[in-house]
Design goal:
Layout (H helix, E strand, L loop, with lengths): L3 H6 L3 E6 L10 E2 L6 E2 L3 H15 L6 E4 L7 H5 L2 H12 L6 E3 L3 H6 L2 H6 L29 E6 L2 E5 L15 H13 L27 H16 L3 E5 L18 H9 L4 E5 L7 E4 L5 E4 L12 E7 L3 E8 L4 E4 L4
Parallel strand pairs: 1-4, 4-5, 7-8, 8-9, 9-11
Antiparallel strand pairs: 1-12, 2-3, 6-7, 10-11, 12-13, 13-14
Helix pairs in contact: 8-9
């Protein structure tokens, strides 16, 4: 018979996290600087293994956060984008937990926003709407940001954000957001190739085409959701593809307007964690407002025989990450309000 102490050890719920799978039916390659090996086919095996482990856990994860870049951009050149995506989706469907998908730069190397909205990577239907929080709900408005929120357990909320809302990727050339994003890049990056940070120093290295940012529209929406969560005394975890704290990643991997979204987050008491991918080396920082910025290591640069995923166990006072392979175990304690 379970005692009170036993019950206290049980989490309220758990969820899985995986980032940067970047599958392609291609031979192993390297990153742009040829410093890191990329295992395109093996990434599918690691995803399959992760799904099997999540399915076998004693407590079934309430959901899985897939932090973006499920297939690699090279699929576009190989004319295999749709086939590669279907292969990955077939593995996801074997998971007994629902999948929340985030869009990264590699999604936009393969598809435009209209196609993504119609694809299995649109998990917005898993979001729940509260009458007190007005959110963008028109799926046919492809200029609108991709974002939603949901509450898997009382007093806990998760917000899916779009760190390519401002971007030159996936946007029609005629759109205002593409124009504004191009102007921002031109202001800071004088290279012919906007994916190059040559000549840029410090945090200016973030102004490259494979990064993006958050529009004012999205920041206003996020502010409204967080105000609701503050008033409801919820604990909020925010997920995105691109990191927003310079100390949680390298200087080239930060969102363009990281300072603006940090200002929004720091104005609210409810935020406890920010979960991105994008930086395959991972990273971690606890900021001075008590928010955990935990960047997940990428599957694509994980060698055969290792792993790169985790399960987060959520308690009233902390989250405990059970990592596999390159993902280390962590205890993320909530700030005291």
């Amino acid at each position: 018979m379970a005692t009170e102490a036993d019950e206290a050890k049980k989490p309220n719920f758990s969820f899985g996290v995986i980032a940067d799978i970047q599958y392609a039916n291609a031979d192993n390659g390297y990153n742009d600087t040829r410093t890191k090996r990329r295992y395109y086919r093996n990434s599918l095996h690691l995803l399959r293994s992760a799904v099997m482990e999540w399915n076998e856990e004693p407590i079934t994860p309430s959901f899985i956060l897939q932090l973006g870049d499920v297939i690699d951009g090279c699929n576009s050149q190989l004319k295999s984008s749709k086939d590669a995506l279907q292969v990955v989706i077939d593995e996801f469907t074997k998971c007994t937990s629902p999948m929340h998908h985030i869009w990264g730069n590699h999604e936009f190397y393969n598809f435009d926003r209209e196609l993504l909205h119609k694809s299995a990577l649109n998990s917005k239907h898993l979001g729940k709407m509260e009458s007190s929080v007005k959110t963008q709900s028109n799926p046919d408005d492809h200029e609108a940001f991709y974002g939603y929120h949901f509450s898997p357990f009382p007093k806990f909320r998760f917000i899916i954000t779009d760190s390519y809302d401002l971007s030159v990727l996936g946007r029609k050339y005629s759109s205002k957001k593409h124009h504004d994003s191009m102007e921002k890049l031109k202001t800071y990056n004088k290279n012919e190739d906007f994916n190059s940070s040559k000549g840029l120093t410090g945090l200016d290295k973030r102004f490259v085409a494979f990064n993006g940012g958050f529009s004012q529209e999205q920041l206003d929406w996020l502010n409204k959701v967080l105000t609701f969560s503050d008033n409801n005394r919820e604990k909020v975890t925010i997920a995105a593809h691109v990191p927003i704290h310079p100390n949680s990643t390298n200087s080239q991997g930060v969102a363009w307007n990281y300072d603006e979204i940090l200002s929004v987050l720091h104005a609210h008491t409810s935020v406890v964690c920010f979960l991105p991918g994008h930086d395959h080396d991972g990273g971690y920082h606890l900021d001075d407002h008590g928010i955990h910025h935990l960047t997940f290591e990428g599957v694509i640069e994980t060698s055969p025989g290792s792993q790169a995923f985790g399960t987060m166990y959520v308690y009233n006072d902390r989250m405990i990450l059970g990592g596999r392979g390159r993902i280390q175990d962590r205890i993320l304690r909530y700030k005291q309000i």
